[in-house]
Amino acid sequence: MRKKPVPRALSVSTALKGVILGAFLANPLSVMADQHFYTSDDFKRLDKIDSHVHANSIGSDMVDLAREANFKLISINVDYPDFPPVDRQLEITAELYQRHPEDFAFAGTFTMQDWGTQQWVERKVEQIDHATDEGAIAIKVWKNIGMSFRDESGELVMVNDEGFTPVFDYLEEQDLPLIGHQGEPRNCWLPVSEMTVLNDKQYFKEHPHYHMYLHPEMPSYEDQMNSRDRMLDMHPKLTFIGAHMASLEWSVEALARFLEDNPSAVVDMAARIGQIQYQSMQDYEEVRQFFIKYQDRILYATDLTYTDGQSGQEFLAEAMTVWQSDWDYLATDNTLTSGFVEGEFKGLHLPKTVIDKIYRSNAERVFKTTLYASKNH
Ligand SMILES: [Zn+2]
Prior knowledge:
The protein has 377 residues and is of the alpha/beta class. The model is unreliable at 1-26 (pLDDT under 50). Helix 4 links the parallel strand 2 and strand 3. The chain folds into two domains: 1-35, no CATH class; 43-367, Alpha-Beta Barrel (TIM Barrel). The chain is 43% helix and 11% strand. It has helices spanning 14-26, 29-35, 62-67, 86-99, 120-133, 144-147, 165-174, 198-206, 221-234, 243-246, 252-261, 273-282, 284-293, 312-331, 352-367; strands at residues 48-55, 71-76, 104-109, 138-141, 178-180, 240-242, 265-268, 298-299, 305-306, 335-336, 345-346. Bound molecules: zinc ion (ZN). Residues 52, 54, 76, 270, 303 line the site of zinc ion.
């Protein structure tokens, strides 16, 4: 059982109590307000799930570290050349799952090896089965599809390519959720001067190779979104988690349309909170109402990555900063700043019921995890 927060009036001297009580009675909403919202200090106390992290090392135990902040973790394996090979990622995540079945879950993935061969479907089904045998609760498809993987004739392979159809049909049959990261933030297709958040400006200035505005021969932002949407049209029963706000991080209006069009889809917030902060600086109520309206369709997530060679304490310090500042933005109405946008902005002050869903129960439902199964909630 949670302790109820102590009403503020109790901290004031008894001489003033009558006056304050009178004020509360005159405005009963001010009493209700405190009961319906979390404070900044509630952060560690609440049971939470970070639905998108990457456990790429077993050096320190990431699950033990996250416990310091009362977080359970869902780690996502991904076919990304800068990460350990997919087989190694599976070993690491399977090991953490063995150690902590009630505190850790993971998504497997498949590689593009054998694409275009007779064995493609059979091999991918084998890879998926192997991951789920080890405990995977979902499968990830990454942005290499659409942005870098090319077939034998040198053509980019898009996610709605018919080669994927039997593989995604299989996930649908198995009732296995698909986590999709297609495309990039829309900023990637804009000149640096028109980009919204500071981290994108910095990243694409330093990595012109990945800056699609400079590569007009590559598929457009709309091409990436359309191919993902066509794929979902073909798999209406597939549970789909759009990683990184489904790459619609730039507009809660566009994201609302996506969620309306795809009733089996949810989105995770990983690494896109800056774009949400940017929008709430322009139109606070629109963003706040989006979170309230779609409170069943959003998963709290960060993209925090633990890598070989990093000390556990170093990781934990970074994670704590990210987790606490995200919490303050979502749960409180404090005036805040972040490294993503210039200037101050106000926290979204989402009601407790919304925070509880975004931070835990949506992930439990979508991934059918047993993460909090032993707790009586
Ligand atoms: Zn990620």
